């Protein structure tokens, strides 16, 4: 899916969207040393804008925000791109000043009513063409078959080692989707390439399972889905994210500690030898 924007400052970029849910002035609202949103009461307080495709649908702020933008660029803590919902000179002035100093700069474009959300992956060309290459959204009833096919493809490789189909291959995806527990990752063509199932359980967020099609493996899709689970857990006030994986899925067992999870138990449950993990949220 592509959208034509108006180019204010030419450039190319690709990355993950951070969509500002409320207006913010960079002056007093963004820390130029850490790139974190510091405006008390802002719905995304504490979020980092560095390295993001920053979508700003509504603009406010003083002219001093351009100085903050300049400092972010100087410290290499700036967003990858700015997508503005209306024309504005303040933030682009900081980018222009950085260019005059021969610092690395970023593209700035204008797109009214930008149809993106946090977590989307988009790219911007020098002509201002914006392409959405990955979308993560809540699954709908029509996604059930695609989710099931993704699970079949991802977990089929473990059938021989386990001696039967892993639990995710026989899950009731229709019921999980009806309950609003499933999110899917869709590519530029709208095809489902991954999914995740999670829900609150006894004060924590339980990550039931996550899978990515082989064609999308190694592109960070699974990590983005897990990141969504952790974000929703924090928003829900959960103390931790908990999950398990089969002991034969050695790739998962080595991956989760890299994402901040610690092993808490190993036991047989429902006929499967499972390894349990937990990540505390602070």
Describe this structure in words.
With 282 residues, the chain is α+β, with helices and mostly antiparallel strands. It contains eight helices and 14 strands. Helix 2 (65-74) packs parallel to helix 3 (90-100). The protein is elongated.
Indicate the mean pLDDT.
95
What's the number of helices? 8
The whole-angstrom Rg is: 21 Å
CA(first)-CA(last) distance: 36 Å
- The proportion of residues in beta strands is 25-35%
Short description:
It contains eight helices and 14 strands.
Name the features.
8 helices; 14-stranded mixed beta sheet; alpha+beta; single chain
Please give the structural blueprint.
Elements: E1 2-4, E2 6-9, E3 13-19, H1 26-29, E4 53-56, H2 65-74, E5 81-84, H3 90-100, E6 108-110, E7 121-124, E8 129-138, H4 144-155, H5 159-162, H6 173-178, E9 182-187, E10 192-201, E11 204-212, H7 221-235, E12 240-246, H8 250-258, E13 262-269, E14 272-280
Parallel strand pairs: 3-4, 4-5, 5-6, 11-12
Antiparallel strand pairs: 1-8, 2-6, 3-7, 7-8, 8-9, 9-10, 10-11, 12-14, 13-14
Helix pairs in contact: 2-3
